[in-house]
Amino acid sequence: MLGDGSVLWGRGFGARGVTAVGEVCFNTGMTGYQETLTDPSYAGQIITFTFPHIGNVGANLEDIEATTPAARGLVVKQDLTEPSNYRATRHLDDWLKSHGVPGICGLDTRALTARIRDGGAPNGVLCFPADPGRFDLAALRAQAAGWPGLEGMDLAREVSCRQSYHWDETEWAWPAGFGRQAAPKHRVVAVDYGAKRNILRCLASAGLDVTVVPATATAEEILRHRPDGVFLSNGPGDPAATGEYAVPVIQEILERRVPVFGICLGHQLLGRALGASTYKLDRGHRGANQPVKDLTTGKVEITSQNHGFAVDEKTLPATAVVTHVSLFDGSNEGLAATDRPAFSVQYHPEASPGPTDSHYLFQRFVELIEANKKGG
């Protein structure tokens, strides 16, 4: 049920007896559905997968970005595919049931995607009742229409860790799997607004000793770890709402001239900390095939993205420059401060799922830390 009262019928799978309400968006990625469903940036959203065959690699305990799925539901074209992968430990349907996530298949996902593309992401309710075929359509219509939407919503608190912890796991490599960082060169504090595990792995793989702190951590709590750099993670919700408590903290860190690197929501929060404003995109960028131009090198990267808000580059101060731009719609994809050691990107360079074109950004963060140490 969409917010305008439209009803789309299909076959349910996953968790029965669940009614999920959220923003209905679409993701164009052909792989990585398990990483997508567990990406905390999808909190508050129902995901339409444009790729028709979902479930073909099953589910496992390694391809997750958080312990539990953040997405509220999923929409797919075909019945879930039977798993056919040596790493699969269970069927996707069984995995969804264990986490209480409902899904619906048999819809015309092309038509739904075109509708979102042309009219923006609508509110919606996905209902898979315990009693088959029994729906209170009037109640569902009211629930969909009454959901407030993501604007003004701070979801980072919901998906952030509750206490600080240390992270040393490195990226997955065949056939050994995940490794450990035993000889880090620099200390970094990662502020968890909804951090993906593979981002933390990339930081560790770059030679960083990572301490993760909650989204609500104060500047004092961050700086007492004596970090060589501070990382601002991805996350869900409206950056203006999260920024009410996050921006003053980031501004104090910037004043101390501690190197800062932000991704996704962290990029938007850095932009706001520098004085820029943010706005909600009509459609958002969600997929693993998004072209972005790095203005500092002239190279084009194919990137993995998941965001519904963007930095308004027209409001950036003179002490900040645009470093990356979307080749889809021209929206801002990166910025850097000119008077402080700080930069950020809108997309997900850790590539989980997605291409690895942008892995260099983690090394750029390390180089910024090392340059700051030499200068200080």
User: Helix and strand string, N-terminal first?
Assistant: EEHEEHEHEHHEEHEHEHEHEEEEEH
Separation of the first and last Cα atoms: 57 Å
Oligomeric grouping of the chains: single chain
CATH hierarchy class name of the largest domain: Alpha Beta
Strand content: 25-35%
Q: What do we call the CATH homologous superfamily of the largest domain?
A: Class I glutamine amidotransferase (GATase) domain
What is the CATH architecture annotation of the largest domain? 3-Layer(aba) Sandwich
How many domain modules?
A: 2
What is the C-alpha radius of gyration, as a whole number of Å? 20 Å
Poorly predicted runs of 5 or more residues: none
Q: What overall form do the CA principal axes indicate?
A: globular
Give me the secondary-structure category: alpha/beta
Main sheet properties? 10 strands, mixed
In percent, how helical is the residue content? 25-40%
**Numbering strands along the chain, what is their spatial order in the largest sheet?**
7-9-8-10-11-16-15-14-12-13
Note the total helix count.
10
Q: How many strands?
A: 16
CATH topology of the largest domain: Rossmann fold
Q: Gist?
A:
With 376 residues, the chain is of the alpha/beta class.
Description:
- The structure is a single chain.
- This protein has two domains: 11-146, Carbamoyl-phosphate synthase small subunit, N-terminal domain (Glucose Oxidase, domain 1, 3-Layer(bba) Sandwich); 156-375, Class I glutamine amidotransferase (GATase) domain (Rossmann fold).
- It is 25% helix and 28% strand.
- It is built from ten helices and 16 strands.
- The strands form two sheets. The protein has a ten-stranded mixed sheet, sandwiched between helices. The chain has a six-stranded mixed sheet with strand order 1-5-4-3-2-6.
